Amino acid sequence: MSRAPAQLPLGVGLRDDATFDNYHPGANATLVECLSHQFDDNGEPFLYLWGGDGVGRSHLLQAACHQASARDLRTLYLPLEELGHFPPLMLEDVERLDLVAIDDLDRVVGRKRWEEALFHAFNRLRDSGKRLLIAADRPPRQLDIKLADLASRLTWGMTFHLRQLSDEDRMQALKLRAHLRGMELPDEVARYILHRGARELSELFRSLEVLDNASLSAQRKLTIPFVKKALDW
């Protein structure tokens, strides 16, 4: 197999902006550190992260794949929210890869073919000394897994609870994303966006994209009146 990243099945790819550089960790700094060093000599071979919607599970799994690919390692990202209705054929021969990142595990628990395929894939990856990342909305022991051996395997690695960012951390995340887009976002404007905008960071980042395009078009700096007009608030 080529040393290039493995061809992702069914057209599933990685978002270009899903990197560690544009993720503000807040209370999740220890997890991000472990993910960043997973391929070091003392890195953890299996990491399981869980948390509610909007905490960045998918972002971090894709960031790990981007980082591994940059080191000429073979990766595979499997979002089961999109792929779980297919048979688990994409898990065949995964031990030939260096990193497998399985997102939305909760979407396939209780389904015999998927649970058996995940169990065998886990064993092959472990025996081959490869790395595995799994993300779900609940910790392993709260998943309604029917295959006892799979339930046992999911507790073997390190488990992290991915926590929601505080309001201050959400503001810093917004300012970081603005900085990476080349935008100057004053604190008072960032606070205004957080106060008036959606709670989900993904929606706030989409608002930033709108503001970026509007400010470039109008050749205007970001001020509260300009933001209010550009976002029709």
From TrEMBL:
Q: Which domain of life is it from?
A: Bacteria
Record's protein name: DnaA regulatory inactivator Hda
Identify the residues that the record assigns to the Hda lid domain, covering every copy: 167-231
Where does the Chromosomal replication initiator protein DnaA ATPAse domain lie?
A: 15-159
One GO biological-process annotation of the entry reads:
DNA replication initiation
The record, for PANTHER family, names:
CHROMOSOMAL REPLICATION INITIATOR PROTEIN DNAA, DNAA REGULATORY INACTIVATOR HDA
